[in-house]
Amino acid sequence: MFEKLTGHEDPHPIYEQVRALGPLVREGADWVTTSHTLSNKILRDRRFGVQYTDGSYPGVAGVLPRSFLEMDPPEHTRLRRLAMPAFSPKKIDEYRARVEKVAESLLDADEFDLMTDFASPQPIAVISDLLGIPDSDTAEFADYGALVARSFDTGVTPEMAHANDQVLALFERLIAERRTRPGDDVISSLVAAEAEQKLTAQEMVATLVLLLVAGFETTVNLIGNGAQALLGHPAQWVLFKANPELAPDVVEETLRWAPPVQLTGRIAHEQVGEVGRDEMVHIIIGAANRDPDVYPEAHRFDVLRVQKPEHLAFSSGIHYCLGATLARMEGEVALRALARRMPDLRQTGPVTFRDSVAIRGLRSFPVSRS
Ligand code: HEM
Fold first, then answer.
1. Domain count, the chain
2. Lesser CB count within 10 Å: N end or C end of the chain?
3. Tens-level pLDDT at each residue, the chain (370 residues)
4. How far is ligand 1, taken at its centre, from the CA of residue 369, in Å?
5. C-alpha 209 to ligand 1 mean position (Å)
6. What are phi and psi of 290, to 5 degrees?
7. Is residue 237 a contact partner of residue 342, using CB atoms and an 8 Å limit?
């Protein structure tokens, strides 16, 4: 099925073809599931993990350093814990003030591209705060970060390998600075943990790259997909504008209906039912989120729907997105600001899609405020 997905068109007709074959379907040497219940079960089942039994993993070899997203316990547990302070409720409150300011400052233009002029700068500002990247370095990080993130999908081009080297060099510089002058940011707390030998220098860099990429490539598409869903469903847009307190519901329904991360996967550590040891199960988050067994009228975008069970946009189990609270807050602030400041927002030309199967989002979305 994967070769049929282009990353441009609506993937749901293909997902539905797979769903019609049953909850667990053979795909070459692998398996695919579109079932919400089964996906959730596999993501929570400790007999499955993200690495093979020989310790190798299916990541893009030779580019990004291996992060805890690609590790099983006990390494995963140790490293995830060290990154957690960046996401404390107190920190999220601090980021909120920044996000609100950025959202407001971006909404002054009459004609603009909702992706490049509004959705992208938001997460970049937040990640820069979170990592303690000085304003003077933010633009460079943003450019390279976007390129590095793209390597997940398209494989590695020389341009990306160069961007990867640049990101690593920038992090090395910031780490060295924090060693002499610690601040109140993730790099400083990881530097302190490194001094206590809780993680290696390489693990520290890998964690920083993960935070950069995970925060960049996803939230931007939550904001873009949410805005597109609202403009494409005028009654829901009117409802939201009249009831801005619905922002959290709009965000949850966007995450369910058009999740930025469409796919993940798990590898069986032992024979589990039909799935053999070291066989991969591809979990189609986008399809699980529209499983008619758990969501009535699953293809309908309805911000008032009861979100039970929770969608799988942030995955489930031990790899549940560490940035979920932050992403939800960013999405709420951005979409609320849009509804309040741009009630007459309209699309002025065709959208273009990202060139990606795993990440679902728009590349461009031309709009006008009136
Ligand atoms: C709408 C925005 C976001 C979406 C849809 C999203 C989605 C996901 C998903 C699906 C996973 C798990 C993948 C798997 O189980 O295989 C994940 C993990 C993760 N996300 Fe997010 N994410 C978002 C925003 C963020 C942000 C803003 C950050 C941080 C700044 C972040 C940091 C992480 C980290 C560190 C992990 C790894 C967790 C682990 O392996 O234990 N995410 N995210």
1. 1
2. C
3. 777 787 777 899 999 999 999 999 999 999 999 999 999 999 999 999 999 999 999 876 556 789 999 999 999 999 999 999 889 888 898 889 888 988 888 888 889 999 999 999 888 888 888 888 888 888 887 777 777 766 666 666 777 777 788 888 889 999 999 999 998 889 999 999 999 999 999 999 999 989 988 888 899 999 999 999 999 999 999 999 999 999 999 999 999 999 999 999 999 999 999 999 999 999 999 999 999 999 999 999 999 999 999 999 999 999 999 999 999 999 999 999 999 999 999 999 999 998 888 889 999 999 999 8
4. 32
5. 13
6. -120, 35
7. no
Closest CA to 288 of 328, 315, 327, 306: 315
* For the chain, the helix, strand and coil percentages under 3-state DSSP, each to the nearest 5: 55, 10, 35
CATH of the domain at 128: 1.10.630.10
Residue type, 199: L
Angle between helices 324-341 and 89-106 (to 10 degrees): 30
- Domain residues for the domain of 150 are 2-368
Identify which of 233, 231, 130 has the alpha carbon closest to the alpha carbon of residue 183: 130
**The model's pTM:** 0.95
Alpha-carbon distance values, 79 to 67, 184, 198, 301, 314 (Å)? 9, 19, 8, 37, 19
| 218 within ligand 1 shell (Cβ under 6 A) | yes
